Structures are given as C-alpha cells and as structure tokens.
Amino acid sequence: MTRNSLVVRLSASFALTTLVLVGAGSLYLYRSLSLILMREGEDDLRRASTEILRRMEGPAGISGNLVEGCEFRVLDGSGRVVQQTPGMPDLEARGAKPGSFFLVGEGDSRHMILESGWRSGRLQLARDLRPEARRLNRFRDVLWATLGLTSVAAAIVGLWTSRRGLLPLRHLARQARAIHPESLGNRLHLEETPEELRPLVDALNRSLSRLETAFSRLAALNADMAHELRTPVHSLKVEAERLLSRRDLPPDVEDGLSGMLETLDHMGAMIGQMLFLARIEDPRAVLVKARLSAEDLLRSALEPFELLAEEAGVQLSAAAPEGLGILGDATLLRRAIHNLIDNAIRHAPEGSTVSVRAWESPDTSILCVGDQGEGIPEVHKQNLGQRFLRSDPSRSRGTGGTGLGLAIVQSIVNLHGGKLEIQSAVPRGTLANILLPRT
C-alpha cells in the first residue's frame, strides 16, 4: 500500500486522532492527579498544624511525628529553635504570611512547607513530596504505555475498519472489470451498495447505457457500410473482369485494370471480414459448442493452405495427441486457425515450417500456430488484435493482409471465453496460442 492509499490515510487518521485525544486526556489526568496529591498534602499539613498547636498548649507537650511524612520545627519570637524533629529540613527565614504554603528544594529533596503563628513565635511543618513524586512518575509511565498501545491499537482497528468499509468499492471494481465490449449490457448492482455510493453507481450505469447505445450504433454502422460497399465493389470487379477479357486493350490499360482488379479483390476480402466481425460481435451471437477432435480440427484447417504453402516454399505440419477433445464452435475455431495459418505462411521464409499443434493443461485446451519468420517487434506486441494493425507499417497490401485477421481471431477467442497469447522474438519467429476453457 502506498501513501496515496485510502486505507493508509484512514488508518493514519485513526491513529493520529487517537494519539491526540488520548494524549490530551492523559495530560489532563496527570495534572489532575498532581493537584489532588498537592491538596491532600496541604490538608495533612493543616491537620498536623492544628494538632501540634493544641498539644503545645497542653501540659504534656509534644513528642515525635504526629502525621506520617510530616516534620516540624518550633521557633520562639527571636527565631531560636524550641523543638524540632530530626527530619526537618533547614529553611531560610521567609517571613511568610501565617497559614501560607510554599515549596522548597528540588528533585528528591522537595518539601511542602506550612508556617503558622504560635504566640510570639512560629511553627514550621514540612511534608516530604517524594512519595507523591514516585506515584506521579508511575502514573506517568502507565499513561505513556497506554498512549502508545492505544495508538497502535487504533491504527490496527483503523486498518481493519477501512478495509471493511472499502469492501463495497472493491466489489464495484470487480463488477466494472468484468464489463467488456461483449458484455456492455451488464450493470453494476445497487442492492448491497451503501447509500453514499449509490449516486456513483447510478452515474456509472447511465454511462454504460450510453456507451452500449453508442457501441451498438457503431457496430451497426460497420455492418451497414460493409453491406452497402459489397454491391458496388462486386459490380466494379465484374466490370473490370469483363474489360480484361477483351483482346484489343492497350498494355497500359490492361496493367491498370489488373491493378484495379487486385485492389477490388482486397477490398472484397476486407468487406467480408468486416461483416464477419460485425456478426460475431453482435450480443445476440450464439455459439454452437460441441466436443471436437483436435486432430480432425487441425487437419481440416490445414487443407485449404496446402497449395498456398507449396507456392511459398513452406512446409506444413500438424500434431495433436490422439483422442484430445476441444470444446468449441467448429466453424469459428476453424476460421480463427485459418487466419493464424494465413499470417504464418505470409511471414514465414522459404524453406521453413509452419506448425499447428494442440495439447491440454488441467483446465485449458491450447491451439498453437507457429512460424519461423521475422517475428514481431516489441513495440507492436501490446497492440496486437487491434483492427487494421500491421506489425510492419511498410508492408504493402500486395501480401493480401487487411489488418483484420488477428482482430477476428481475438473476437472468436473472446466469444469462447478464452485468451489469445502471442509469443514472438525477432528474428526467431512467432507462436500464436489460443487458450480455451475445457468446460
């Protein structure tokens, strides 16, 4: 977790707030206990003063300490000591107002002093404050420990509370990640959403509705344009073929018509692929899944390319474990493998081999088409599967590519709930893996 994490911020806020509140409360308690102890000491000295003065007036006089922790000294009018206890500290003449308190000494020798008038002299009482100081020190240590433990506990509780409080956001994020162009009809659930997040969820659902509408219109436009273009392209192709059949054409006109016919063939292939993409990306598209023999699927996928591979000087090979079954739509999977084989043959050098293999892992069936061509530069790998993308921008359309082959493969794989992985290294070739769920 980083500093920008809400969990970290909330946990730190919990700990800091607790530190401030408990610290302020601890300071208040410490000062309150200090005042209470001082007042108790003053009360003890007042009681001792009253008792000493009462006994001094009696015939027996006084002896020893009357109050534990209190010492006294009696002085006559000239300041001479009449009587004192052994523990009475030395005091300078203060001339304090009778009945007043003051403190003398520092640290361990600190005493609270009370002076009272007696006849023409004075009575001085002293109370040792070391027991109170020790109690305060112990109390202070307890407060420090409590402050530290409470702050740590607050941080832990804040971390747990923040994580629990942000669970609805994580749940919404999981729902949002599950929405793809193929599932734009899905919406974020409002049932278990906290009241504070409902406006956000409602706004996101409205945005998804607008996006679904725009995406549907775009897909419809793509299909409509392809339909509209197919007829004039076919007409132009028929007319070009008719003109080429004439034997009285000048050579330059014949070359121009040949080039135009080649371009029309390319446009026809592109329009066909655009219509195919529009059909399989329609939300109403339905898969006809069946258990297919991997061996038969690969063999039937290679057959249409035997002549093309022979012309290109490329060998074809297929390998699949006997009895291996693949769950999927036979027509769509064959189309996906066709596109990958076509790419591989066009990119493979003469004398090399294009291989088609199949195998399975515990939960995945893998179809792999590999070539020994020039490979795909690293800069283009992240964009593979985008429409009209070519890994080599300088490649001419004369190779027959439309830039829609991998986009069709990606759409077919997505429709099956699978994944397309491209592994390529320049100049060692490319492996295209179709990963399909086994169930």
Automatic annotation (TrEMBL):
Listed name of the protein: histidine kinase
Localisation: Membrane
Domain Histidine kinase per the UniProt entry, residue ranges: 224-439
Entry keywords, A to Z: Kinase, Membrane, Phosphoprotein, Transferase, Transmembrane, Transmembrane helix, Two-component regulatory system
SUPFAM superfamilies: ATPase domain of HSP90 chaperone/DNA topoisomerase II/histidine kinase, Homodimeric domain of signal transducing histidine kinase
Lineage: Bacteria, Pseudomonadati, Acidobacteriota, Holophagae, Holophagales
Gene Ontology molecular-function annotations: phosphorelay sensor kinase activity
Xref: CDD domains: HATPase (cd00075), HisKA (cd00082)
Biological source species: Mesoterricola silvestris
Any Pfam family matching the protein: HATPase_c
Transmembrane feature ranges: 6-30
